[in-house]
Design brief:
With 153 residues, the protein is an alpha+beta fold. It has 2 domains: 111 residues, Ubiquitin-like (UB roll) (Roll); 28 residues, no CATH class. 27% of the residues lie in helices and 17% in strands. It contains 4 helices and 7 strands, in the order E-E-H-E-E-E-H-H-H-E-E. The chain has a 5-stranded mixed sheet with strand order 2-1-5-3-4, with helices on both faces. Strands 6-7 form a two-stranded antiparallel sheet. It is globular.
């Protein structure tokens, strides 16, 4: 008995194994989808939203790393809407990254930004308030919680 799930990816027939994500199928088919929070051996959470795709008939874009294909699903990875959303996510993440001098040229964030044509962020950077928070150090005012505003979460 064949348990594969048949759907289309960028107009091409695709098959997924049960439990496989849209992102995993795309990778197997040679379709590159930006991804930042997906790491082998860790559960996919879809937190970064860089891997969004468009599913026909759905109002919102779906994170491909944690979305399972369904029979007959039609998925697009490169529509203008998808690319615009991916670029915006990368711009926001770059704006929240530490100063550009410390942002490594070979980082995944920079590489995906270059591949998708993100030149510069339209959004304000971390600025003086972020620098002050990093200098001030962690907030240990609560006995059960230490907040480090300069750390990436």
């Amino acid at each position: 008995m064949n348990n594969t799930i048949d759907f289309t990816l960028d107009g091409r027939p695709a098959q997924a194994e049960p439990g496989e994500s849209l992102w995993a199928v795309a990778q197997r088919m040679g379709v590159d989808i930006p991804h930042l929070c997906h790491k082998p051996g860790l559960p996919s959470a879809g937190n970064c939203r860089a891997c969004v795709v468009e599913v026909a008939g759905e109002r919102v874009l779906a994170p491909s790393c944690c979305r399972a294909p369904q029979a007959g699903m039609q998925v697009q990875t490169r529509t203008p809407r998808v690319r615009r959303a991916q670029r915006t996510v990368l711009e926001l993440l770059q704006a929240d990254a530490p100063a550009t001098a410390s942002l490594k040229v070979n980082s995944e964030l920079v590489q995906w930004g270059q591949r998708l044509g993100v030149q510069a962020t339209r959004f304000g950077g971390r600025g003086a308030s972020q620098a002050a928070a990093m200098v001030a150090g962690p907030d240990r005012s609560h006995p059960a919680l230490a907040v480090n505003l300069g750390a990436c979460i």
